[in-house]
Amino acid sequence: MNPLRTLILAAAGNDTIRHLVATAPVSRDVVRRFVAGETTQDAVHATRGLVESGLSVTLDYLGEDTTDRDQAERTVQAYLELLDKLHSDGLADRAEVSVKLSAVGQALDERLALENASRICAAAEQAGTTVTLDMEDHTTTDSTLGTLRELRRSWPWVGGVLQSYLHRTLDDATALSGEGSRIRLCKGAYNEPESVAYIDQHDVDLSYVRCANALLSGEGYPMFATHDPRLIEIIGERARWYGRKPGSYEYQMLYGVRPDEQRRLAGSGETVRVYIPYGEEWYGYLMRRMAERPANTAFFLRSLVSK
Ligand code: FDA
Known about the structure:
It is built from 13 helices and eight strands. The chain has helices spanning about 5-10, 15-25, 30-35, 40-50, 70-90, 110-125, 140-155, 170-175, 200-215, 230-240, 260-265, 285-290, 295-305, and strands at about 55-60, 95-100, 130-135, 160-165, 180-185, 220-225, 250-255, 270-280. The longest helix has 20 residues, at about 70-90. The site of dihydroflavine-adenine dinucleotide has 24 residues, from strand 4, strand 5 and strand 7.
């Protein structure tokens, strides 16, 4: 892995650096480029803007690695409030939510995470929208896929995420390519060991294409989460090859990343969903975005010293 990426991902888990960055006079604009704001109102405002420009949305209330029940409960309440607001503002048909199980108690007790995720799914059903479970580091993959299976018994539309950097993912993609399945395919954002993950980016990309083929040739609804122009082109070609019409799969990109490409794809008739993070816990998320792209890091560091 690129040493800068390793360093930044290490900083994402370092409490001292976390404190320094969180209390530094970081330009509001920098955080705002990747994070919609801290409140439900901010999230709904950003959602409305994107929906009005022809995009769909998935919203992530930021917070991960929760180690106490009260924090997990606050996260559930934030999702319930958000879903209620999406419904009352008439946005629920174009905006769903993404949930990290670690934010609703996975590390404390898997059953608590399942119960909390179930409450969010029930609220999403009432609001008329869907939920996708984000995927975190490889130590949680089995637990998260197990919870996805449980949730899908009651809410068959609950989506999951697979990461092409993991060696296991082609098998998971094949197993999860059946009817009704909604799977987001991404490269993967965590610092994983060679024993479980491809380290060379080219291998990660090759795996992405193999997994995309498995999903496109199945009966489910694949969601291709990438900003990579080469992969976006290949997916378009593979989708045509498998006779997939736009709308029987979708592209997904992160808020603030390649917005012109998001609009271009949507303008060409594709479904494009933008992942909007919001909330006070923006630090870990921002660090992962920095790790992905040195240009983002330079932009961020410049803003730190220029304030
Ligand atoms: P990558 O970062 O390898 O970049 C490839 C190319 O894309 C670049 O060379 C450049 O051409 C272009 N590009 C990338 N960023 C750009 C930028 N800022 N500006 C211009 N061009 C840019 N991960 C995870 O582990 N679990 C999860 O649940 C999710 N969920 C998720 C949802 C959504 C909607 C997205 C888009 C991503 C995720 N991810 C994720 C993150 C994902 O795993 C991955 O880390 C990032 O998407 C970065 O990988 P890319 O595929 O975009 O390509």
